[in-house]
């Protein structure tokens, strides 16, 4: 079974996971990063999981970012819509868009005291 690690405190992430839960046809489980103990099975580490979407397969292979998104959606009837994001023609642009969006989301939610609710960290210079 594939396990998708997601940020349960992010409204957009929760919305996407709720849609995936509703549409998935089996073989996909969900792990809210914030509901795992610090010594839980968070192999890449909590910060890495918050920065990018992560999915681990039953054989232990990790898919990160765009690849995790495409793999998660492959468990739904809409999976074919995401497959072109991995094609050589589209992948470079899709990768840049995903990484910029993910970096911005992380900075706004976790990297500065004025951006994240309850956070008391200073900007990290990302």
Automatic annotation (TrEMBL):
A Pfam match: DCC1-like
Protein name, per record: DUF393 domain-containing protein
């Amino acid at each position: 079974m594939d396990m998708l690690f997601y940020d349960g405190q992010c409204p957009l992430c929760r919305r996407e996971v709720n849609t995936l839960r509703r549409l998935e046809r089996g073989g996909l489980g969900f792990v809210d990063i914030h509901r795992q103990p610090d010594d839980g099975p968070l192999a890449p580490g909590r910060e890495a999981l918050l920065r990018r979407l992560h999915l681990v397969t039953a054989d232990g292979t990790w898919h990160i970012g765009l690849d995790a998104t495409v793999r998660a959606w492959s468990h739904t009837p809409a999976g074919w819509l995401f497959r072109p994001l991995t094609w050589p023609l589209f992948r470079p642009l899709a990768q840049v868009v995903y990484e910029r969006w993910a970096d911005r989301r992380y900075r706004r939610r976790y990297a500065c005291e004025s951006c994240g609710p309850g956070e008391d960290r200073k900007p990290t210079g990302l």
